[in-house]
Structures are given as C-alpha cells and as structure tokens.
Amino acid sequence: MTYILAIDQGTTSSRAILFDADMQRAGTAQHEFTQHFPQEGWVEHDPEEIWDSVLRVCREVMQSVGATPDQIAGIGITNQRETTVVWDKQTGEPIHNAIVWQDRRTADICARYKQAGCEDDVTQQTGLLLDPYFSGTKVKWLLDNVPGARDRAEAGDLLFGTIDSFLIWRLTEGCNHVTDATNAARTLLFDIHKGCWSTEICDLLDVPMSMLPEVQDCASDFGKTTLIGGNIPILGVAGDQQAATIGQACFQPGMMKSTYGTGCFALLNTGPQPVASKNRLLTTIAYQLDGQKTYALEGSIFVAGAAVQWLRDALQIIETAPESGELAQQADPNQHVVLVPAFTGLGAPYWKPDCRGAVFGLTRNSGRAEFAKATLESIAYQTRDLWHAMQGDWGADTDVILRVDGGASASDWAMQGLSDYLGAEVDRPVMQETTALGAAWLAGMRAGIYPDQQQFAETWALDRRFEPKLSANDRDAAYARWQRAVQAAMAF
Ligand SMILES: Nc1ncnc2c1ncn2[C@@H]1O[C@H](COP(=O)(O)OP(=O)(O)O)[C@@H](O)[C@H]1O
Ligand SMILES: O=P(O)(O)OC[C@H](O)CO
Q1: Which atom of ligand 2 is nearest to the CA of 133?
Q2: How far, in Å, CA of 259 to CA of 282, rounded?
C-alpha cells in the first residue's frame, strides 16, 4: 500500500491524515494545543508545542494505520496562515511565542502606516490591507520588542517563517528555509504580481530580507525528513484556505468555497489575472503550479465556529458544538436577536480591529435558544457581507454555487440558514477534510501517484445541496437588521 501523509496544522489543533493511493482517508490523528492570551487582543502559540503536536500526530496516524515510512510517497503540509514565528538560525529555537493571525497587538503600527499614506502602495503590491491580521507587522513587533532581536536579525542570525516554513525547517533539521507562494502571499511582504519579496515593503516595515524564506510552487521539492522514520520527501505546501480551495476543486474562474472553522474564509477563483477589490476584499494567490499563479479574491471573517465555542465555553449554554443547531431550531421565530461576533475585531469587508462584539434585540424571553440561533445566523450574515463584496468585484450573478467545508459546515441548520440568507445554493461535499485533501493532492500529484488537476476535479462528490427557502422579503429584512447591528457595534 502507498500513502500520502497530510499535515494540517490549524489554529486550535494539529491533524495528520493518511490518504491511500485512491485518495481515500485511511486514518486521522489529532491533538489540540494551548491558546495563550497574554493580554486583551493578543493571541500566541508555543511553537515547541505545535512542533511536538505535529510529530505526535504523524507518528500516531502511521501507527494506527500500520503504515511504514517506506510506504509514504510524500508529505503535504497545510497550515494556519499569517501566524508568525522568528527563530535562531543556528539553534532552531524560536525567540518568542508565535504571534497568531487573530492577534491585534499591531493595530497601532498599522494605523500609523495608514496615516502616513502607505496603504495604497502596500495593497497594490501585496493585495492585502494594513491590518494586524497579516505577518509583516508581527515580524516588526518581534524585532522591536524582543531584547536583542533586531541586532540579531540584522546580523543574519534570525529567520522568519509562517508555520509551514517553521515545520519544514524543523522536519529537514535546519536544511531548508522555504515556503510556498500561497503562504508568502499572506505576509504583507510579498509582491503577488512579480512573485518575489518586496524590497520596498521590507524597508518600510524594517524587516531584513535575510530573514525571509525561499518561495516555491505549491507542488515542488521542499526537502526530506527522517524524523518519522525513512527519508520522506515533502512535496506539497499550501496555506489552509488555499488548500481547501484546491481540495474543493475550485479550479475554474468563478468557483467559490467557504470554510467554516474558527473563522470563515471565502475564496473565489479569479483565474490567471489578479482582480483588485473595490470592496475591501483581499487579492491573493490561490495556488501556484508549474510557475503559473492562479489568483483569488478572499473574504476573511475572524469569528465563525469560534462563536459556537463561545456558546460552549464562555456562556456554557451548550456542551457540544452540534447542540447549537438543535437549540437554534427551538428558538422563538418572533424574536430577532442579532449577535455581532466581533470578538477580535471585524475582518472583511469592514476591517475594524478595535470593534468588539455586541448583542441586539434582547427581550425578557430571550434565552439559550435565541443565543444559539443568533450565533449560527451571524455566520450566514457575515458570509452575505462577503458575497455582496465578491459580486461587486467579480460581477458574479446569484447562480454561483458555493462549496462549503470546515467544522461548522457539519451543521445542517447553519448551512440551511446560509442558503436562506444568501438566496443561493450551498453545496457540501462528501469529503469533509478538504483542506488536508488539497495538501495531499499537491504532494501525491508531485509524487506521481495522484491524478492531474482535471481528473482530480472529477472526483469531487456532493453530500447535500441546500436550497434557499426564505422569501426575498424576509431575507432582506433580516439582512437589514444585521447591517444596522454592525453599524451600531462599530459606533460603540
Ligand atoms: N455541528 C457543528 N455546529 C456548529 N459548529 C460546529 C459544529 N461542529 C464543529 N463546529 C465548529 O467548528 C470549529 C472547528 O472546525 P475546524 O474546521 O476543525 O476548525 P479549525 O481548523 O479552525 O481549528 C469549532 O469552532 C466548532 O465550534
Ligand atoms: O486554522 P484555521 O482553519 O482556523 O484557519 C486560519 C486561517 O488560515 C487564518 O488566515
């Protein structure tokens, strides 16, 4: 038997999935790791804990399936994007915890650059906005705040990487400092048109270019590892949202996927030409194969499934995530409670890092069920914000079918609500591990055991299509309530 090992290093857990030669899942291992919140708005991960969790899940999945290293034809890595690690080139030791994509500590740095009129130029080159979400200002913060870091970086002793890059450095025991084009495209330091690091932006943010990894195609040779036995090549890398776009086979311009994990990330394939957004979406690289870039418009929402976790962990009104749908179903249809889950600011298309969450429309009778309903509906409303912005930029009509995945897409109630509030069809595939599948396909195709792009696209299979049932009037009235709630939350 031949396998591909996909490593999915996500925001809350690390997963390893073995796919067999038919691209079927043979086994999965998963471990959650600690989320550190040292100050309000700060989110960190311990890179050593991430590293340990990755090695552990790789070994566990191999053991559970009974796969030997010589049966693994290649490794595909997909990862939480933007999360920033800086480490010592000699020892491989991180100089600080990883600063996670959700972290808002660089909001003031971004505001200063914006006031100085830098945003247009940065957006033109990177497709991104001056928001703390992206890696660039996080690297700057580390160099300016960790004692001695700037001198060490300028002396060429420190390296920067997103999680993929850090994992490859560790897996190859310090031989390879590399990343792929999709991860590079999320750093705020990469010119997505020229396909190289931007000297101008590195100067602007005071990031020495000697720290930056080499950028490769998504399916290429990233080095070999002996750390899980054998000598296994790493052949595929993509940021997790891009890997899901690949796993959902959104290979044609106009195809769109939306992933509902911790946050929600919608990517619309726009083909070989980048589309500059007029509606504050991001322009990003969907994938780069054989040196050819395919671009996407992306809408990034910071809190989707995380709001369900909030119901479970902070409010304690559910014990498990799936209960949210059961509870929402029991809500009083005459109450219009609206939750704006801006727990870590608002992402696309608002980009308000300082905004915080709010609940509107409470009555004496509002209870657990209404909170659950408002939480799941907030996922749909936020997607509609993105949907409108995408239509404005791309001119897509309502016939566009949305392919969904991620943990919260398992909720029939939430997906029906999504279809209702979008007024569009929503397709959920049989294969729920689209992110890992995307990374596995990149590696398997490179290894020569998986089919080409077109044949791979033909293997996509529908689990369920959700069709809109709400009248246009009810849909528009509900969305108008959401828009008023967002404006009020931003004004607070
Ligand atoms: N049945 C469900 N209904 C609603 N939300 C769910 C359900 N199952 C999982 N979730 C949410 O999905 C998220 C986990 O999805 P996952 O794709 O594993 O996320 P990530 O990769 O960001 O860690 C959690 O935030 C959880 O609250
Ligand atoms: O790890 P996830 O699934 O929450 O995805 C995080 C995104 O990549 C952040 O941009």
Answers
A1: 10
A2: 16
Over 70: is that where the pLDDT of 159 sits?
yes
Which segment, 193-202, 271-280, 352-361, is predicted with the most confidence on average? Answer: 193-202
pLDDT value, residue 396? 63
Count how many Cα atoms sit within 13 Å of the Cα of residue 395 in the half-sphere of its side chain.
Answer: 2
- Sole residue written with tokens 């996080």: 138
Catalogue the long-range contacts made by 473-479 (C-beta closer than 8 Å, 24 or more residues apart). Answer: 475/420, 475/421, 475/423, 478/336, 478/377, 478/381, 478/421, 479/381, 479/384, 479/421
Residue 284 near residue 295 (C-beta atoms within 8 A) = yes
Ligand 1 pocket, CB under 6 A: 10-13, 261-262, 305-306, 308-309, 321-322, 324-325, 406-408, 410-411, 414
Q: Is the pLDDT of residue 145 over 90?
A: yes
Nearest one of 357, 379, 133 to 263, comparing CA atoms: 379
380 falls in which pLDDT band (50, 70, 90)? very high
CA–centroid distance, 408 to ligand 1, in Å, is 4
Q: What is the mean pLDDT of residues 390-412?
A: 83
Q: Which of 194, 91, 105 is CA-nearest to residue 142? A: 105
Name 173's Cβ contacts closer than 8 Å, sequence gap at least 6: 225, 226, 227
Q: What is the pLDDT of residue 397?
A: 60
- The Cα angle at residue 71 between residues 70 and 76, in degrees rounded to 5: 100
Closest CA to 182 of 215, 158, 160, 208: 215
**% of the chain exceeding 70 in pLDDT:** 99
Q: For residues 472 and 80, what is the distance between their CA atoms, to the nearest angstrom?
A: 37
Q: Tokens 């969904």 map to which residue?
A: 404
Q: Which ligand is nearest to the CA of 301?
A: 2
- What domains are there in the chain, each with its CATH number? 3-240 (3.30.420.40), 249-429+461-492 (3.30.420.40)
User: 182 CA distance to ligand 2 centroid (A)?
Assistant: 13
250 Rama class: left (phi>0) / alpha (psi -120 to 50) / beta:
beta
Answer yes or no: is pLDDT of 398 > 60.
no
Label residue 43 left, alpha or beta by phi (over 0 means left) and psi (-120 to 50 means alpha).
beta
pLDDT in tens, 180-193: 999 999 999 999 99
CA distance 428 to 405: 7
Ligand showing the shortest atom-to-Cα distance for residue 407: 1
CA 136 to chain centre: 17
pLDDT at 347 (0 to 100): 87
Residue 245 pLDDT:
97
- Give the contacts of 138 (CB within 8 A, at least 6 positions apart): 82, 84, 99, 103, 105, 106, 132
- How confident is residue 354, by pLDDT bands cut at 50, 70 and 90? confident
